[in-house]
Design goal:
Layout lengths: L3 H6 L7 E4 L3 E5 L7 E7 L14 H18 L6 E4 L15 E5 L9
Antiparallel strand pairs: 1-2, 2-3, 3-5, 4-5
The structure holds adenosine monophosphate and zinc ion.
The site of adenosine monophosphate has 13 residues, from loops.
Amino acid sequence: MDCLFCKISANEIPATVVFENERVVAFEDIHPQAPTHVQIIPRKHIATTLDLGPEDRSVVGEIFEVAAQIARDRGVADDGFRLVVNTNTAAGQTVYHLHLHLIGGRSLGWPPG
Ligand code: AMP
Ligand code: ZN
């Protein structure tokens, strides 16, 4: 399958991996928008949030758990951080493999642009 994040998950494209297990991979964003910008993905190819099914409930919970642990490890948890999932064009989704952005280490404006 021609999917960038599947290739990262399979080690076919290099990435700076910060966490991995059988179900989840987390790696540094190649174009960070903040001092901490990590992508947390399920290894399973799920294109968007609209493609989630009941069988994905557990891995969706797990990517949030992993994100929270990375935020603690990076020391951005107490100050605060943002978890973002862009869905489809208007939200700016560019990679069609579900990913949770962990963004932290600076003040973040609200509402987002
Ligand atoms: P989105 O706009 O929500 O689809 O986010 C895609 C994210 O993937 C962007 O923040 C990109 O900077 C990031 N990205 C694209 N290619 C790579 C790559 N090869 N390694 C790490 N992050 C990437
Ligand atoms: Zn994929």
